[in-house]
Amino acid sequence: MADRILVSTPEMEIAIQKYENARSELQDAYSKLDSAKSHLDNCYKGPAYMALCARWASIYMNVRTADNAIDESVNGLRKTISTMETGEQNVSTGFANLDTGKSAPTYL
User: Fold this and answer.
1) Which residues form a coiled coil (predicted)?
2) What is the pLDDT of residues 10-23, one digit of tens each?
3) What does the alpha-carbon distance between residue 36 and residue 44 come to, in Å, rounded to a whole number?
4) Does residue 93 or residue 4 have the better pLDDT?
């Protein structure tokens, strides 16, 4: 295993976009399933329908869990990007303020 993990800001932005795309696909699929279920809601009210409703509640919770996990991942990546950029800016500013010996010291 490597001693350090090197990841660039653009790579993290790409990962964020992939997460957002996955979220969009998940929400689209859920919407399509929900629309199909709505048609069934008006067709049948029996034991099978009750089983479907129970299963549907489970699917809904799985979708919510996945959505929350995506949120946590995206927020973590954004926080990491912000921390990296702030750190890089602080390092750059610190180096810019260093006395590099370009001017001769004044001795009294």
Assistant:
1) 12-39
2) 999 999 999 999 99
3) 13
4) 93
Give me the domain span that covers residue 34. Answer: 17-41
Distance between CA atoms of residues 15 and 39, nearest Å: 37
Amino acid identity, position 66 = A
CB pairs under 8 A, 24+ apart, for 50-53? none
Record the tokens describing residue 20, joined without a space.
């957002």
Give 37-54 pLDDT, tens digit per residue: 888 777 777 888 888 889
- How far apart CA 70 and CA 88 sit, in angstroms, is 27
Asked if residue 73 is part of any domain, the answer here is no
Domains held by the chain: number: 1
CA distance linking residue 55 with residue 49, whole number of Å:
10
Q: CA–CA separation, 40 vs 49, rounded Å?
A: 8
Under 8 Å between Cβ of 8 and 52: no
The H or E element that residue 39 is part of is helix 9-41
